[in-house]
UniProtKB/TrEMBL annotation:
InterPro entries: AAA+_ATPase (IPR003593), AB_hydrolase_fold (IPR029058), ABC_transporter-like_ATP-bd (IPR003439), ABC_transporter-like_CS (IPR017871), Galactose-bd-like_sf (IPR008979), P-loop_NTPase (IPR027417), Xaa-Pro-like_dom (IPR000383), Xaa-Pro_dipept_C (IPR013736). Residues 247-265 have a biased composition (Low complexity). Coiled coil: none annotated. SMART domains: AAA, PepX_C. It comes from Pseudonocardia charpentierae. GO terms for molecular function: hydrolase activity. This is Alpha/beta fold hydrolase. Gene3D superfamilies: alpha/beta hydrolase, Galactose-binding domain-like, P-loop containing nucleotide triphosphate hydrolases. Residues 675-903 form the ABC transporter domain. The keyword ATP-binding applies. The lineage of its organism: Bacteria, Bacillati, Actinomycetota, Actinomycetes, Pseudonocardiales.
Length: 973
């Protein structure tokens, strides 16, 4: 997603022009498969730029040009993927996505849709006669391309993906063209009429509660004028967007070189006010914007541009990705698409992520899932991807970069889909008598709950700033639950039954237009609008004084509700994002009858929290979470005392106590290794293999460094070692005992993984004491003084941890890991935040710790520090071990050696004469040579035999050089 990067004041952000902000965010649906264009800037990819002529459309003469780019992988023929861009963008918007797919071995075709950028024609909103026909013509070209794998005459093996506007195009293309073999639509619509004219009302009990986010999709909806205006304004400006194509931030030089359309109509009899839209789309928008109603003609136009019109004939495997922060296309749109394709017998997988038109681009989990989907269904790689269901839960914790943190939950299947059991629900009784709510004349002032692209952000600001309140006095009825007794994770669309009636003697039209939403209310009164979204309702109200009974489907959300907090249902009469009623009215709004029970019904989808996306373990363990960690430590400690009480204890110097021989049980048999890892593997659902066949041993007395670039699998290995996640295959044994969640042997391991977590209102000393007390072990076994010496915090150890710097927290966390002097110490990036003197001190502490007979495992990016601290290293790359051994062996592995001699010139001749030796160079008294497999000892022997005095011999490289060579990168000189 494209988003502002510079910081503004809150008020300044709210003053951004809505159309510009919304268009930017609506258009920014690139980076579906890749982190960004820069990540692939250096990838050598062959590209072919071509202008393709396609039919202008029914009733139009001649052809129009489409601006296309074909990306070719290193090996062809290969399957192809079409990548469609979002509304207001161009083919440049999805360049990074295309390159990511090329890196996976696919031919990729991108193009600028008609009406945008350098392509001709007019915008027809993914019409089958125009944009879909264009895409089918591009499939024809792939069928004639020898670089593309062919399944038969005229039938290329092809997939399609895209976000928002491009996602709908992907679905429609698959419905109209059976040659599409797989697709991955992202944050898009199912029914464009319902997306722009939603109505969340249904008769009580009439709507099945089978899937988590099923929407009512009732007729005669309420015009979503805010987002619809964004659509239309994006097609008025030159280039198809505000100030040009806004998605993906194309290169200005490229834009300057592209002839920009003037915005004038390109077909006869089309008013200039229509910009680049077809006359039919322009007429439909004008009518909706002026009347606020959906006419039969507009309904038919939007139906033909809706995937719902073809989902019953999509046979290609479909990965449906939808954002949880999306006031444009909510979770109900994806739910409908998945249900319809599955009902027709298609293969469907559903993924939700913490983003969308209001929230951000797909995360790495989604990108990997899309790539894996195409890998199998197009290239035949691996087993069929799982059809489980994953969603993301935002934690509310933010990192130092102000990035929201989250975790991923995966369930075996999307409830109610393809034979899976229906979704579980939990009824929460609501409190509140019927209340009166009025519609002011003209519908003004109107509540502000969301604006295009801002979504929940503005709703939450509105809860705190009176000038932007989301609930105006007298314009809403509210109903509250009791405080929830336990944490509740809402995953889908809650429901509530309402009764709407006229107030005797007060004005009221024949129908009520209302806006329903759900807030979480914290114990301090703070309100959070779940999903930042509202559900509009249009319902006919009887004139005889009886009430209209209606079941309202509230916005689909993923929302963790803290124990002790309440949920509040608010039903308002106005909202600035929609075209509500302008006629003055007064309504009585109450909870539904006895059949409904006056409850808010929330969907719950249990699953396994398989990974933390951006959540550091420390903040989660801090505050309340530390008590859960303490409880776990207590249980482990008790099991530890029961299971390993026979083990001979050791003193601070590592020497066995009580005169034992230092073996496991005093028998004289060798003690088990501190750590044995065999064929360890971890594959996440979706097929991503984080760790593959990792094996290594750690011996007593070692300081072993675990090295690897980001994504190598180091932290995954450490998390499996600590029992935090389960391996897919292989085994881990510590001191001869298997490691798993809650294993007693974990009490013999001290760990600092993924960040420290402390109670900020306590001192460093009190935090250490509290942690040790939670283990249940005697105070004298803590060796607290040793830990405090290690921390080196001086008098600051008595200050509140909330005042500590990052380095101080780091030192305190390492001291905590060393409490009790564990036999195996596992540290992840222990020198982060430390200054050079502190790093030097840490090095000496770790070396002394291992020298006393214990073992240290360090994962670090500080290669120079590892070289000076560790005795052994294991190097990982792409989930596997690529090298293991002593530091000296790894450094010398490439054969670069240096010799200090008395006769350098003569030594150079001798070394140059050895078989295989090359690149001999003299540097003062030193001679450097690439031995290329010749043992260093043999080279020394040759020099001595030739009468050359060898004063020293050793490797020439640094650990950094060896590391970069092992992971496939060249060192920068």
């Amino acid at each position: 997603m494209t988003s502002p990067t510079g910081r503004r004041t809150r008020a300044a952000r709210l003053r951004l022009p809505v159309a510009l902000l919304g268009a930017t965010i609506l258009a920014a649906t690139g980076a579906l498969l890749a982190p960004g264009t820069a990540a692939h800037a250096a990838t050598p990819t062959r590209t072919i730029e071509e202008t393709v002529e396609v039919p202008a459309g029914p009733g139009l003469p001649d052809t129009i040009p489409l601006d296309t780019t074909l990306y070719l992988p290193a090996t062809t023929p290969a399957p192809a993927v079409l990548v469609a861009h979002g509304f207001g963008g161009t083919k440049a918007s999805v360049d990074a996505d295309a390159r990511a797919l090329v890196d996976r071995g696919f031919v990729v075709l991108t193009w600028t849709a008609r009406g945008f950028g350098a392509s001709g024609g007019q915008i027809a909103l993914d019409s089958p006669d125009f944009e879909v026909a264009d895409a089918r013509a591009l499939v024809d070209r792939l069928a004639a391309n020898p670089d593309v794998v062919q399944d038969g005459p005229g039938d290329p093996r092809a997939g399609v993906t895209g976000g928002s506007y491009g996602g709908a195009l992907a679905l429609l293309l698959a419905g109209y063209d059976s040659r599409i073999d797989a697709l991955a639509p992202v944050i898009t619509w199912n029914d464009l009429g319902q997306a722009l004219f939603p109505n969340a009302a249904a008769a009580p009990g009439a709507l099945p509660a089978d899937t988590p986010a099923r929407g009512a999709f009732a007729p005669d909806g309420v015009f979503k004028r805010g987002w619809a205006g964004v659509f239309f304004s994006a097609g008025l400006a030159p280039g198809g967007g505000p100030g040009g194509a806004v998605e993906g931030a194309p290169d200005p030089a490229e834009e300057a070189a592209t002839p920009a359309p003037t915005g004038a109509p390109t077909a006869p009899n089309v008013p200039a006010t229509c910009g680049r839209f077809t006359a039919a789309v322009c007429t439909a928008y004008t009518e909706a914007a002026t009347t606020g109603r959906l006419s039969p003609a507009t309904a038919e136009l939007l139906r033909r541009s809706s995937p719902a019109s073809v989902t019953d004939r999509i046979a290609a495997p479909t990965l449906v990705v939808q954002g949880e922060a999306d006031t444009l296309f909510g979770l109900d749109q994806a739910d409908a698409t998945a249900r319809q394709i599955a009902a027709a017998g298609g293969t469907v997988r559903m993924l939700w992520y913490a983003g969308g038109h209001d929230g951000g681009a797909p995360d790495q989990r989604v990108r990997d899932a899309i790539g894996t989907w195409f890998d199998h269904w197009l290239a035949g790689k691996g087993d069929p991807p799982a059809t489980d269901f994953g969603y993301t839960v935002a934690s509310g914790v933010r990192t130092g970069g102000d990035t929201p943190t989250s975790r991923t939950v995966e369930a075996p299947a999307y409830p109610g889909l393809g034979g899976a059991p229906a979704v579980s629900t939990e009824p929460l009784p609501l409190e509140g008598d019927p209340q009166v709510a009025l519609v002011p004349a003209g519908g003004n002032p109107a509540a502000i709950t969301s604006l295009p692209g801002l979504g929940g952000a503005l709703g939450n600001i509105g809860n705190r700033v009176a000038a932007f309140t989301a609930e105006l006095p007298g314009q809403s009825a509210v109903f509250r639950t009791a405080p929830v007794a336990a944490p509740l994770l809402v995953a889908g669309a809650p429901r509530v039954d309402l009764a709407i009636a006229r107030v005797p003697g007060q004005p009221a039209p024949d129908e009520a237009v209302l806006f329903a939403k759900v807030y979480e209310i914290a114990s301090d009164g703070t309100r959070t609008l779940l999903g930042g979204a509202v559900s509009p309702v249009r319902v006919a109200v009887p004139a005889d004084g009886s009430s209209a009974q209606v079941a309202v489907t509230l916005p689909g959300v993923v929302a963790p509700v803290e124990a002790g907090n309440r949920l509040m249902v608010s039903v308002g009469t106005t909202d600035q994002g929609f075209a509500g009623t302008t006629t003055p009215a007064v309504w009585q709004i109450g909870l539904g009858g006895a059949e409904a029970g006056g409850a808010l019904t929330v969907p719950v989808v249990p699953g396994e929290a398989v990974t933390a996306n951006t959540v550091p373990a420390g903040p989660l363990l801090g505050i309340a979470g530390v008590f859960a960690a303490a409880l776990l430590a207590t249980v482990v400690a008790r099991l530890y005392r029961r299971r390993v009480g026979h083990r001979a204890p050791s003193g601070p110097d590592g020497a066995p106590v009580d005169g034992t021989d230092g073996t496991a049980d005093g028998s004289g048999l060798p003690a088990p290794r501190p750590l044995e890892i065999r064929d360890l593997a971890k594959t996440y659902r979706g097929g991503f293999k984080a760790v593959r066949g990792v094996s290594f041993d750690v011996e007593r007395g070692m300081v072993l460094g675990l090295l690897g670039p980001n994504g190598a699998g180091k932290t995954t290995v450490l998390r499996m070692l600590m029992g935090l996640i389960r391996p897919t295959a292989g085994s881990i044994r510590a001191f001869g005992e298997p490691v798993g969640a809650g294993a007693p042997v974990l009490a013999r391991i001290g760990a600092f993984v993924e960040g420290p977590g402390f109670l900020p209102h306590l001192s460093g000393l009190d935090n250490l004491r509290l942690y040790w007390a939670a283990t249940g072990r005697p105070n004298e076994e803590a060796h607290l003084d040793d830990a405090l010496e290690i921390a080196g915090l001086g008098g600051s150890v008595r200050r509140r941890v909330g005042t500590y710097s990052q380095g101080m927290r780091q030192r305190l966390a390492i001291a905590q890991a060393m409490l009790g002097l564990p036999e195996l110490l596992v540290l992840d990036e222990p020198t982060n935040g430390l200054d050079p003197p502190q790093i030097h001190a840490m090095r000496e502490v770790l070396q002394r710790y291992a020298a006393a007979g214990r073992t240290v495992l360090v994962s670090s990016h500080q290669l120079a520090e590892v070289e000076q601290t560790c005795s052994h290293v294991v190097v990982m790359h792409q989930g596997t071990v690529v090298a293991a051994g002593t530091v000296d062996d790894i450094i010398a592995g490439g054969g670069a050696a240096s010799f200090t001699v008395d006769e350098p010139a003569r030594a150079a001749v001798v070394l140059g004469g050895l078989d295989g030796v090359r690149a001999v160079a003299v540097d003062g008294e030193a001679v450097h040579a690439e031995l290329n497999g010749t043992p260093r000892a043999s080279a020394v022997r040759a020099l001595v035999t030739a009468g050359v005095e060898v004063r020293s011999a050793g490797p020439r490289r640094r650990l950094e050089d060896a590391f970069l060579q092992l992971v496939g990168e060249e060192p920068h000189r």
